[in-house]
C-alpha cells in the first residue's frame, strides 16, 4: 500500500507568514496564516523592511502551530517546501532560512516552489487539476495566462506589459481614499454603482493574450483630478463599478478566447484578485455559455498561504526536484523556468 506523503510548506514572499502541512498534495492538515495587513495599512502598501521583521517574529511560532494543528512532528514530515520567489527578497529569505534550518536539523529534502505555481495549485486543494488547462493568474504582482498540458508544465501565453491587476486595484483605491488593500474595498463598492464613466478597455493587438492596466489606471486618476478641479461630485460607487467592469471585461474575454483557441475545457483562476465577485460572476456566466469547466478556490486559498505551496511542492517532490542547502531566494523568477516536462 502507498504510504501518505506529508509536506511541510513555508510561504513568506510578501505580507503573510504562513506554514502548512499537506497530505498527498491535496489534503490540508493545517494552514496557519499570520497576516500583516494591519501593520502595512497606515503606509498604504507593503513596506519590505516591516514585512521582513514581522516574518522573523512570527515564523517559529507559525511552524510550531502548523505542526501541532496537523497533529504531526518533524519526524512525520517527508520534505520541506518553501517559496523561492518571486516576491520581496528580504521576506523570501526569512522563509527560506527557516526551511533550510528544518531540512538540515531533521535531514529532510528541501523543495523550492515558484509562488505563482503555488497560486495555481491552490485549485488542486479543492478539486483535481485536469489537463490541458488554462490558468488565469491575477494577483498583486502578476497578471498572466498560463497554458498547462500536464502537472508542473507551464507555458506563459500572455502577461501584463505594465501594472499587475491587483496593483491597479490598489492604486485606484488610494485615489478614492479607500484603505489598503484596495481590491476588496473596490469590489464591495462596485456592487452598488453603475458603469457611468466608461473607462477604456485595453485589448492590445488582435489575438494577443497580453494585458495592460496602466492606461486604465491613468484614465481613472486623470478623470478624478479633473472632477476635483471643477469641484464636481465624485460618485465612488460609480468609479468602482466603471473601473471593475473594464478590468473584468478584458480579463474574462481574453481567458475565454485562450480556452477556445487552445482547445481547453478547464479554466482555473488563481491569485488574490480571484476573490473578486465581479470577475467570478462574469466567468461563471461565460464558462457556462461556452461549456468550459471553471475552478476558482475559496477566498482563503486565493490570497497568499502555504497550503498552495505544499500542494505544488508535492508534485515537485514526486518529480524528484529538490534543492541543496545553498538554496537562495529569487525576487524575479520566470514560471517557465520551473517547468517539469
Ligand atoms: O495573491 P495576493 O494575495 O498577493 C500577491 O501575490 O500579490 O494578491 C493580493 C492582491 C492585492 O492587490 C489585493 O488588492 C487584491 O489581491 N485583491 C482583490 C480582491 N481581494 C484581494 N482585488 C480585487 N477584488 C478582490 N475581492
Ligand atoms: Zn500571491
TrEMBL record:
Q: Which GO terms describe its biological process?
A: tRNA threonylcarbamoyladenosine modification
Q: How is the cofactor bound?
A: Binds 1 Fe(2+) ion per subunit.
Q: Which GO terms describe its molecular function?
A: iron ion binding; tRNA N(6)-L-threonylcarbamoyladenine synthase activity
Which protein family is named in the record? Belongs to the KAE1 / TsaD family.
Q: Which gene encodes it?
A: tsaD
Where does the chain bind Fe cation? Answer: 115, 119, 304
Q: Which Pfam families match?
A: TsaD
Location(s), subcellular:
Cytoplasm
Q: What does this protein do?
A: Required for the formation of a threonylcarbamoyl group on adenosine at position 37 (t(6)A37) in tRNAs that read codons beginning with adenine. Is involved in the transfer of the threonylcarbamoyl moiety of threonylcarbamoyl-AMP (TC-AMP) to the N6 group of A37, together with TsaE and TsaB. TsaD likely plays a direct catalytic role in this reaction.
Quote the EC number: 2.3.1.234
Q: What is its main location?
A: cytoplasm
Per its UniProt entry, what is the enzyme's top EC class, as one word?
Answer: transferase
User: Which lineage?
Assistant: Bacteria, Bacillati, Bacillota, Bacilli, Bacillales
The species this protein belongs to is Staphylococcus hominis
Q: Which residues bind substrate?
A: 137-141, 170, 183, 187, 276
**Cofactor(s) for this UniProt protein:** Fe(2+)
UniProt keyword list? Acyltransferase, Cytoplasm, Iron, Metal-binding, Transferase, tRNA processing
Gcp-like domain location: 27-310
Under the heading InterPro entries, the entry gives: ATPase_NBD (IPR043129), Gcp-like_dom (IPR000905), KAE1/TsaD (IPR017861), Peptidase_M22_CS (IPR017860), TsaD (IPR022450)
Name used for this protein in its record: tRNA N6-adenosine threonylcarbamoyltransferase
Amino acid at each position: 500500500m502507498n504510504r501518505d506523503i506529508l509536506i511541510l510548506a513555508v510561504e513568506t514572499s510578501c505580507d503573510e507568514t504562513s506554514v502548512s502541512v499537506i497530505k498527498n498534495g491535496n489534503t490540508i492538515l493545517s494552514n496557519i496564516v499570520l497576516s500583516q495587513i494591519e501593520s502595512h495599512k497606515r503606509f498604504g502598501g507593503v513596506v519590505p523592511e516591516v514585512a521582513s521583521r514581522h516574518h522573523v517574529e512570527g515564523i517559529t511560532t507559525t511552524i510550531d502551530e502548523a505542526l501541532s494543528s496537523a497533529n504531526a512532528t518533524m519526524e512525520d514530515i517527508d520534505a520541506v517546501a518553501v517559496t523561492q520567489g518571486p516576491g520581496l527578497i528580504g521576506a523570501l529569505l526569512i522563509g527560506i532560512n527557516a526551511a533550510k534550518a528544518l531540512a538540515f536539523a531533521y535531514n529532510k529534502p528541501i523543495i523550492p516552489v515558484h509562488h505563482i505555481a503555488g497560486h495555481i495549485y491552490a485549485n488542486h486543494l479543492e478539486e483535481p487539476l485536469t489537463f490541458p488547462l488554462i490558468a488565469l493568474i491575477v494577483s498583486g504582482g502578476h497578471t498572466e495566462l498560463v497554458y498547462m498540458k500536464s502537472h508542473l508544465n507551464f507555458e506563459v501565453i500572455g502577461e501584463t506589459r505594465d501594472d499587475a491587476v491587483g496593483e491597479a486595484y490598489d492604486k485606484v483605491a488610494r485615489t478614492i481614499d479607500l484603505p489598503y488593500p484596495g481590491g476588496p474595498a473596490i469590489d464591495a463598492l462596485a456592487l452598488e454603482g453603475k458603469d457611468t464613466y466608461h473607462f477604456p478597455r485595453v485589448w492590445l493587438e488582435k489575438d494577443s493574450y497580453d494585458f495592460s492596466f496602466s492606461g486604465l489606471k491613468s484614465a481613472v486618476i486623470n478623470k478624478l483630478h479633473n472632477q476635483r478641479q471643477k469641484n464636481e461630485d465624485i460618485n465612488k460607487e460609480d468609479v468602482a463599478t466603471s473601473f471593475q467592469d473594464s478590468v473584468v471585461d478584458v480579463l474574462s474575454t481574453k481567458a475565454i478566447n485562450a480556452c477556445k483557441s487552445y482547445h481547453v475545457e478547464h479554466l482555473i483562476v488563481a491569485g488574490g484578485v480571484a476573490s473578486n465577485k465581479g470577475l467570478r460572476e462574469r466567468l461563471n456566466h461565460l464558462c457556462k455559455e461556452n461549456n468550459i469547466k471553471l475552478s476558482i478556490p475559496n477566498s482563503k486559498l486565493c490570497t497568499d498561504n502555504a497550503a498552495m505551496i505544499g500542494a505544488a511542492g508535492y508534485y515537485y517532490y514526486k518529480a524528484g526536484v529538490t534543492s541543496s542547502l545553498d538554496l537562495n531566494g529569487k525576487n524575479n523568477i520566470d514560471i517557465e523556468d520551473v517547468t517539469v516536462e
